[in-house]
Design goal:
Blueprint: H1 8-13, E1 15-20, E2 28-31, H2 32-35, E3 46-47, E4 51-53, E5 60-61, E6 71-76, E7 103-111, E8 120-127, E9 130-140, E10 155-159, E11 168-169, H3 173-176, E12 186-187, E13 191-197, E14 202-208, E15 214-216, E16 219-224, E17 227-230, H4 232-240, E18 247-253, E19 258-262, E20 282-285, E21 289-298, H5 311-315, H6 318-323
C-alpha cells in the first residue's frame, strides 16, 4: 500500500460525496484530490483561503457549510489499491442558523477533448439562488500544440437569465488567476497555479471569489474559452503534423504601425499560409483535455447538475500523460 500523498490514482479515483438534510442526491460529488483544490491526481505544497497541503502530504479544507437537519459524508474507494483514511471534521452546533444560510455544493467534470470553437463548461447552468465561490481547473494540452501557450481563453460567467452575452467576462486565462502570460507556479490567497509544467503542457490552477463575491438570484453558468497563442511559423509546423489551426485574432504590423485584427469578424481573413498573414502573435482555437471543480452555495440541498462521471473517464490517460512525467512537489 502506498501513502495517500504519493498515490495519484487514489487522489483521482477516490470520490467524496456530501448530502445535506436527508437529500437523496449529493450536493458535493467529486474526486477527492480535485475537491481539495488540485487537478489530475497531482499534489503539491500550497496554502490558500480555502485549501492547503502544507507538506504535499495532507488535504485540508475550511469553509462554512451550514445545514438544518443532517450532514452525511461518504468517501468511496474506486481505485485499484487499498485505502487507509484518517480524517477530522469540525462541527459547531447552533440553536438556529440564519434563514438565508445556503448549502455548500461542488461539481466536477472532465472533457478529454474539448470541441474546437466551443467554450468548456466549468459549471453548467445551476438553478436557484446562490453564490459562485470559484473553481480549480486542470489542463492537459494536446500533444500537437506542445510548445505553445494554452491560456488565452476568457472565463465567462452568465447570471440570472443572461445567455448570449456573459454577465461577467475577463481576458486571458492567466489574467483570471491574477498573473500574466506564461503562468508560472505560485499560490496566493485567492488565486494560484500549483502546477505549471510547460514541458509537458500540464497545468492546475485556481480562482476563488471570496473578496469579490459573485451572487445569483435565478441561475448561474460558468465557461472558459479554449484558445491558445503562437506565431505563424510554429502554427504552420503544427498544421504539417496534423493539427487543425483556426486563427481567431492576430497582432499585425504593416511596417508603420501595429494593428489588432479580429479574424472571426473578417469576411475573407487570410489563410495561415498566405504571405499576407503576419509572422506575429496569433490566438487560435484549441481542443485540449480540460477538467474543473466548481464550488458554489445554493438555497437548496440538491442541485440539477449531472452526476459524477465514471472512474474510467476520471482516470483515462493520466498515467501516461501526467503521472509518469510529473512527480509530486514539496
Amino acid at each position: 500500500m502506498e501513502p495517500f500523498g504519493t498515490n495519484a490514482e487514489q487522489r483521482r479515483a477516490v470520490r467524496i460525496d456530501i448530502y445535506w438534510d436527508n437529500a437523496k442526491k449529493p450536493a458535493v460529488s467529486a474526486p477527492i484530490g480535485d475537491f481539495f483544490g488540485i487537478a489530475h491526481g497531482l499534489i503539491a505544497s500550497y496554502d490558500n483561503e480555502l485549501f492547503s497541503s502544507p507538506e504535499a502530504r495532507s488535504l485540508n479544507f475550511t469553509i462554512p457549510m451550514p445545514f438544518r437537519k443532517s450532514a452525511f459524508i461518504t468517501v468511496t474507494n474506486e481505485s485499484t489499491t487499498e485505502l487507509w483514511l484518517w480524517y477530522d471534521i469540525n462541527l459547531l452546533r447552533m440553536n438556529k442558523i440564519p434563514d438565508d444560510a445556503m448549502y455548500f455544493h461542488a461539481f466536477w467534470n472532465r472533457n478529454i477533448q474539448t470541441t474546437r470553437g466551443t467554450d468548456y463548461v466549468i459549471l453548467p447552468k445551476v438553478e436557484g439562488q446562490g453564490r459562485f465561490i470559484g473553481t480549480n481547473i486542470g489542463v492537459i494540452g494536446d500533444s500537437l500544440y506542445n510548445g505553445t501557450w494554452f491560456g488565452e481563453g476568457e472565463v465567462k460567467i452568465y447570471l440570472d437569465g443572461d445567455q448570449k452575452n456573459p454577465s461577467l467576462v475577463g481576458t486571458g486565462t492567466e489574467d483570471y488567476i491574477g498573473t500574466g502570460w506564461g503562468q508560472g507556479e505560485f499560490a496566493s490567497r485567492y488565486f494560484g497555479s500549483p502546477v505549471s509544467n510547460r514541458e509537458n503542457d500540464v497545468y492546475a490552477f485556481y480562482r476563488y471569489h471570496i473578496v469579490d463575491p459573485v451572487y445569483f438570484h435565478q441561475d448561474c453558468k460558468v465557461t472558459i474559452q479554449q484558445i491558445g497563442n503562437s506565431d505563424k511559423n510554429f502554427m504552420v509546423k503544427m498544421k504539417e503534423k496534423g493539427a487543425i489551426i483556426q486563427p481567431v485574432w492576430m497582432l499585425g504590423h504593416d511596417g508603420k504601425k501595429t494593428e489588432q485584427r479580429r479574424l472571426l469578424d473578417e469576411a475573407n481573413p487570410p489563410a495561415l499560409e498566405d504571405e499576407s498573414f503576419p509572422v506575429t502573435s496569433t490566438n487560435f482555437y484549441r481542443d485540449d483535455d480540460v477538467c474543473a471543480t466548481a464550488y458554489f452555495y445554493l438555497d437548496k440541498p440538491e442541485n440539477n447538475l449531472p452526476e459524477l462521471p465514471s472512474v474510467e473517464l476520471r482516470l483515462k490517460d493520466l498515467k501516461e500523460r501526467v503521472w509518469n512525467k510529473i512527480k509530486p512537489k514539496k
